[in-house]
Amino acid sequence: MADQHERVSLAERFLGTPTDLGTDATRDISAGLAGLLADVFALYLKTKNFHWHMSGPSFRDYHLLLDEQGDQIFAMTDMIAERARKIGGTTIRSISDIAGRQRILDNNAAYVDPKDMLAELHGDNKQLVAEMRRVHELCDEYADVATASLLEVWIDETERRSWFLYESCRSPKIL
Average pLDDT in the 79-99 region? Predict the structure, then answer.
């Protein structure tokens, strides 16, 4: 236990970035961002998994859609991690760290129907928006307008992905 405490003290000493947000804000917002980053990595990998394992008559459209969405999701990762560092916090360190924090569930099935893939990703993107809103509320509580501003952009992008996934997996209505 003392060894763990010593490592935390070293991290605070060498990795702590001076900020006017305060210790509680740094701790809470960084933790929120670390959880968010774990979810983003989980969603990225699931999106790529479904992209790689897509099949069927709409293969090309769905394959390209998921490739585009995967790129957009991955683009958030560095900004999330760097934002945590800018405010004096730390971020995730490993795959096991991601696994311990992620709230978006993995899908290790050998086969998933294309429409089910899109529906699952739609739900996951909606869940990610909800998690982003929680971190945004935390930012509002601590007056961290810069992190809140980034989150607003990511929420909009995630809602767009969710919309596209929803529309892509809808069944046509029969009159």
Answer: 96
Of 148, 141, 26, the closest CA to residue 90 belongs to 26
- Residue 128, φ and ψ in degrees, nearest 5: -60, -40
Residue 85, both tokens = 């560092």
Residue 146 dihedral angles phi and psi, to the nearest 5°: -65, -45
CB atoms within 10 A of CB 122: 20
Q: What Cα–Cα distance (Å) separates residue 174 from each residue in 57, 89, 96, 98, 103?
A: 21, 53, 47, 44, 37
pTM for this prediction = 0.89
| Chain center to CA of 62 | 21
Task: Give the closest residue to 151 by CA, choosing from 35, 27, 18.
Answer: 35
Q: What is the pLDDT of residues 105-157, one digit of tens each?
A: 999 999 999 999 999 999 999 999 999 999 999 999 999 999 999 999 999 99
Using CA atoms, how far apart are residues 79 and 76, in angstroms rounded to an integer?
5
